[in-house]
Amino acid sequence: MNIATFEELLIAAAVQPQPQRLLMTFAVAEPEENGAPGRATLVPVMCVDKQVGELDTFDNLAEEAGRMGQPWDVVLVTTLSGQGGVLPDHKQTDAALNKMLSAIQNGQMDRLLAFDRSGDLLHHA
Question: Which residues contact 21 (CB under 8 A, 6 or more apart)?
């Protein structure tokens, strides 16, 4: 399935054979020091995990994020699959979120989807 919007990601996750947990990191784009003009570094400001059924639209996710009071430019998303019809537990989810944060901080975002504030895809692995 070709994913171009956040809603298409939700559909793709919902039809997987195992239950999916979405891992999302909201980040701000900061200009790179001594970097090429126009280049930015993504700095994580908050992260959350949600079951696919807990989300319906990107607008609702963005509204929820806005209530946290933290500005953000991009949301980076990946999925974490369950096993045997059971969602990953909190320990597995926390470990995956920490791995995701580390990858973002190291600029290794090839396995993440990035969506702008409108829910449109910015980056695809």
Answer: 49, 50, 51, 52, 79, 80, 82, 87, 88, 93
Take residue 85 and report the two structure tokens written for it.
Answer: 């019809």
Per the CB < 8 A criterion, the answer to whether 3 and 77 are in contact is no
Structure tokens at 32: 């790179």
Q: Dihedral (C-alpha) 68, 122, 25, 85: value to the nearest 10 degrees?
A: 120
Average pLDDT over residues 30-35: 74
Q: Are 28 and 72 in contact (CB under 8 A)?
A: yes
Q: Has this prediction a pTM greater than 0.70?
A: yes
DSSP per-residue letters across 47-65: EEEEEGGG---HHHHHHHH
Helix (H) or strand (E) holding 77: strand 74-81
Domain ranges of the chain: 6-123
Residue 68 structure tokens:
């946290």
Q: pLDDT value at position 79?
A: 94
Residue 57 has pLDDT above 50, yes or no: yes
Identify the band that residue 41 occupies on the pLDDT scale cut at 50, 70 and 90.
Answer: confident
